[in-house]
Amino acid sequence: MSLPKTYKAYRRTRGDLPRTIEPTIEHLPKELAPDEVIIKIHAVSLNFRDVGMLNGKYPVPVQEHGIAASDCAAEVVAIGSNVKDFNIGDRVSPCFNLSDLTGKERDGISQTLGGDVGVLAEYAVFDQKVLVHLPKHLTWEEASTIPCCGVTAWNSLKRPNLVDEDTSALLQGTGGVSMFALLICIAAGITPIITSSSDSKLESIKNLSPAIKAFNYHTHPNQAEEVKRLTDGKGVDIVINNTGPASFPADLESLRQNHGTISLVGFLEDKKADWDPNAILGLMVKGASIQGIRVGSKADLEEVNRFLEEKSVRLDKIIDRTFWFDEAKDAFDYLWSGKHVGKIVVKI
Questions:
Q1: Superfamily grouping for domain 6-145+315-347
Q2: Which domain of life is it from (predicted)?
């Protein structure tokens, strides 16, 4: 196929908060470096961090006026002379952290999609080393949810392809990570407990599988008490914390007596931690751990993709709504409204 000289993208606006996104015209390179690949992007899924950057809610500096969004599914349309692992027409995605390929890198500067390099564009150029093949059974829209959201859910659940019997997980909220984790739990045999402030959302979610347990955190504000009720007094093995450090004491109390994990993935609530720092000693009592999740590596993305293929997991049920590329601003506004359940996708 012949490639255009220019293409359309969306960049974050400059100026005072809150910001928005604006369409821009970008240029494809006239020549490719030997290891470069041009991809034509077919779908982009949004994460809370994308709107958090626009509204002063993201805790990490990002490139000013950068192209937005981190998750995409794309098609290879041109390759450099040294590219061996990819061919024209392959379905691919770049990994989220471009400097974390094996998961064993301990030094170096983090360079992440959505913050440093964005994918809300018709085309993009990446080095072949950061690309992975997508599961063949998924649509463009489904596959676009994996690189950030899917890998975050996977690592939060601690290698769910190797779970023990009677494993359970608490998923805070009904956003993308929680909903992706829900599908992984069902496929891996993990009992999921999901929370929301909306009974209607919870009833809809419970229709996905009889294994799902749920509760309204407004109706049941004592999280640990309700978790233990739903687990016959045991507690859960994993808490996926989407809200931030304010809930750590409740998360710790929600864990089983031994070897539980709190996976810190989000910052949805602005509440500051007002608990006694000595509460952290509860980690010793339970032999528990807190793990900070910064998505994961290219190797993790490949592992998630294999799991989804082996288990024939479809992701269509976690897509709340799809917008066209020209409606990208509306997609961001809808995400910020919090009315969604799961993922919002922009189709290009």
A1: Medium-chain alcohol dehydrogenases, catalytic domain (3.90.180.10)
A2: Eukaryota
- For domain 151-292, the CATH class is alpha beta
- CB-side neighbour CA atoms (13 Å) of 265: 32
Intervals of the chain under pLDDT 70: 1, 162, 268-271
3-state helix/strand/coil string of the chain: CCCCCEEEEEEECCCCCCCCEEEEEEECCCCCCCCEEEEEEEEEECCHHHHHCCCCCCCCCCCCCCECCCEEEEEEEEECCCCCCCCCCCEEEECCECCCCCCCCCCCCCCEECCCECCCECEEEEEHHHEEECCCCCCHHHHCCHHHHHHHHHHHCCCHHHCCCCCEEEECCCCHHHHHHHHHHHHHCCEEEEEECCHHHHHHHHCCCCCCEEEECCCCCCHHHHHHHHCCCCCECEEEECCCHHHHHHHHHHECCCCCEEEECCCCCCCCCCCCHHHHHHHHHHCCEEEECCCCCHHHHHHHHHHHHHCCCCCHHHEEEEEEHHHHHHHHHHHHHCCCCCEEEEEC
- pLDDT tens digit string along 199-228? 999 999 999 999 999 999 999 999 999 999
For residue 265, the model assigns a pLDDT of 93
